[in-house]
Specification:
With 628 residues, this protein is an alpha+beta fold. The protein is built from 20 helices and 22 strands. The strands form five sheets. A five-stranded antiparallel beta sheet has the order 2-1-5-4-3. The protein has a five-stranded antiparallel beta sheet with strand order 7-6-10-9-8, with helices on both faces. It has a five-stranded mixed beta sheet with strand order 12-14-15-17-16. Helix 8 runs antiparallel to helix 9 and helix 11 packs antiparallel against helix 14.
Length: 628
């Protein structure tokens, strides 16, 4: 039937819809009208479409099928919904979803067909299928989050690798918020970094995130990126084995640093020993003279200085298994030790300007680890100035806001910090190197470097709950800033040493070193204890079996034949309630931690003062709570 001006036409409102709409005569199948969307989809104008049979909209091989669907809709006067294909004027075949309905307009039966282009939908489905396959087969654990109401990150999916890496079924957490699924991140800058990535598209990553809550325990490398508006993917791997390997290599690097320090430290150490030996000889020559007290004081001062030098050496050689000490450290003391070490190690071409650190709040942390971190940065700064230059190190107080904290390497919690700036006048760091700066094994020194110096700095600062900022400009040098947590008000008060009390107890001293054993026994006698000596593990066990029962055993951890940990276990087998105080020269803190967990009353580090000994003995006997 040829169209005429009196033929039915589509309602004007259908010209506004986005889907293609065509109207055909129900009896003949001839197209009577079409909206602009149909013209655009088929690449034809209305004049070309009018008068065409509806089946010719389809590829040749589908024309008969299209006629069948059309006839079925007319005969049963029902709406149909089918997926099919149509062909545009340029030959392009377009997948569509067609909805047909029979109606009567202007006294004439017509079929109105709505054609929805499925090209984008199918592409999206294929993309989603590919994404799902990548997600499913990825060796990285992946969590998907959706940011809702600019506040809540909802966990929407996870992959099988996430279950394998974390050791838990993550499907049970789908639909929970980030904080509900992983309560261990509450109060950290992780939440703010995730939200910022979802809302602004700013990617975020951290080379090491330690987590231990809800059955998930381990160290993870985490990377966050936005894959769709308000949607982020969190990819992670477990890195415990890598950390163990890094620690082994880092230990080798520390020993190299120790070699560099040995020459200068041994000189100072020999000076202290000379003072000790000389003063001891003066006392022996004049045992009753008035100068005895002065010579004894000289010995004490020299011994303390020698012990300090030993601690510096241990700081560079001890392994990562050593416990993290928590003490209040003045910045003045920390920078003073840095100055003393660098004066002996850095080349003369480097001029050092190290502030005294006076007036800055103390730091809560492990002095040995922090000293190691600053020295590593200083050595790197020196290497960046092969022709010479100025190295500046200074401290200051800083208050980190949430957005500032999130931008740091390590992303610490907002709050009050001490900032240590290490500034050089080197060539600067390129943007490419900056992206990999704290990655383990990354180095710009070729075969001369392990790539663990800055990684160890990052590890030490992260272990303290701190962060690192890096600023660098070509030719003008670099600034590394360590943000370290301030000590609390209580920690800032100087320790008051009371007068030494009398300790009434029967004590067994077990140590293979005659000098150390003699000093321990003499000190305990001075405190009022009844003391018995044992030169090794076998004699200690024999003394315990002979009786009477000892109130306390002071046990050295490092002994030949039967080591201290074996003596501990055998003593506890004889008497599970045996009170044992461990004595260590720092080299076996990992073992000490295990024995403390097994019931040891305390740990006394060599060298120690009489005040430290009496406090440890009191705590071990129950006069005050034991302090591991």
């Amino acid at each position: 039937m040829d169209p005429t001006p009196a033929s039915p036409s589509l309602d004007a409102s259908l010209h506004l819809v986005r889907d293609a709409v065509l109207m055909a005569d129900a009896d003949s199948g001839i197209i009577l009208d079409a909206n602009p969307a149909a013209c655009r989809l088929l690449g034809m104008n209305l004049g070309q479409l009018r008068g065409m049979h509806q089946s010719r909209l389809h590829p040749l091989e589908q024309e008969s099928t299209a006629r069948g669907h059309f006839s079925d809709a007319v005969e049963h006067r029902r709406s149909t919904l089918v997926e099919t294909r149509i062909q545009a004027a340029d030959g392009t075949v377009i997948p569509v979803e067609v909805s047909d309905a029979v109606a009567e307009i202007a006294g004439r039966r017509v079929v109105i067909g709505v054609f929805r282009d499925l090209t984008e939908r199918r592409a999206l489905l294929e993309s989603e299928a590919r994404f799902a396959e990548v997600l499913r087969s990825s060796p990285f654990g992946v969590y998907l989050y959706h940011l809702v109401d600019d506040d809540h990150l909802i966990l929407t999916d996870s992959n099988p690798a996430a279950d394998r890496i974390t050791g838990v079924s993550n499907r049970r957490m789908i639909g929970l918020t980030l904080e509900e699924a992983f309560p261990g991140v509450i109060g950290t800058s992780v939440v703010a970094a995730y939200r910022r990535c979802a809302s602004e598209g700013v990617p975020w990553g951290i080379p090491r995130l330690d987590y231990d809550q809800g059955g998930i325990r381990g160290s993870f490398e985490v990377h966050v990126y936005r894959y769709a508006p308000r949607r982020i993917a969190v990819a992670f791997i477990e890195i415990s084995e890598r950390i163990r390997l890094e620690e082994r290599l880092r230990h080798g690097e520390r020993l190299e640093s120790l070699g560099r320090l040995a020459g200068g430290i041994s000189h100072d150490f020999n000076n202290q020993l000379a003072a000790i030996l000389g003063s001891a000889e003066l006392i022996s020559l004049d045992p009753g003279g008035v100068a005895v007290r002065r010579h004894a004081e000289t010995i004490a001062v020299a011994a303390q200085r020698a012990a300090q030098l030993t601690r510096q050496m241990l700081a560079f050689s001890r392994r990562g298994s050593t416990r993290l000490e928590r003490e209040s450290i003045t910045v003045e003391r920390l920078l003073g030790e840095v100055r003393a070490i660098l004066e002996r190690t850095l080349p003369k071409r480097i001029r050092q300007e190290i502030a005294d650190g006076a007036g800055i709040p103390p730091i809560l942390g492990d002095q040995a680890q922090l000293l190691n971190a600053i020295i590593n940065l200083a050595v790197n700064a020196s290497d960046a100035m092969p022709g010479g230059g100025v190295l500046r190190i200074a401290g200051r107080q800083a208050e980190l806001q949430p957005e500032e904290a999130a931008a740091l390497y390590g992303a610490p919690a907002p709050g009050r910090y001490v900032a240590i700036d290490v500034v050089d006048e080197g060539a600067g760091i390129s943007p490419e190197v900056l992206r990999h700066l704290f990655e383990p094994f990354f180095t710009t020194k070729g075969e001369q470097g392990h790539g663990l110096g800055l990684a160890s700095v990052f590890g030490a600062v992260s272990a303290h709950g701190g962060g690192i900022a890096v600023r660098s400009q070509p030719v003008r040098g670099s600034i590394f800033t360590l943000y370290l947590p301030c000590a609390g008000i209580a920690d800032e008060q100087p320790t008051q040493h009371p007068r030494l009390p009398t300790v009434s107890a029967r004590v067994l001293v077990v140590d293979d070193e005659p000098v150390v054993r003699s000093v321990l026994c003499a000190a305990l006698h001075h405190l009022g204890c009844v003391v018995e000596e044992a030169t090794d593990g076998a004699s200690a066990l024999a003394a315990w079996r002979r009786g009477p029962r000892f109130d306390l055993v002071v046990l050295d951890l490092m002994m030949p034949q039967m080591d201290g940990d074996e003596v501990f276990r055998q003593l506890r087998a004889l008497d599970p309630q045996a009170a044992i105080l461990l004595v260590s020269g720092h080299s076996r803190h990992g073992v000490a931690e295990e024995l403390l967990a097994a019931g040891a009353r305390g740990l006394l580090d060599k060298p120690f003062t009489l005040q430290q000994l009496v406090l440890a003995v009191q705590a071990s006997l129950g006069a005050s709570p034991p302090r591991p």
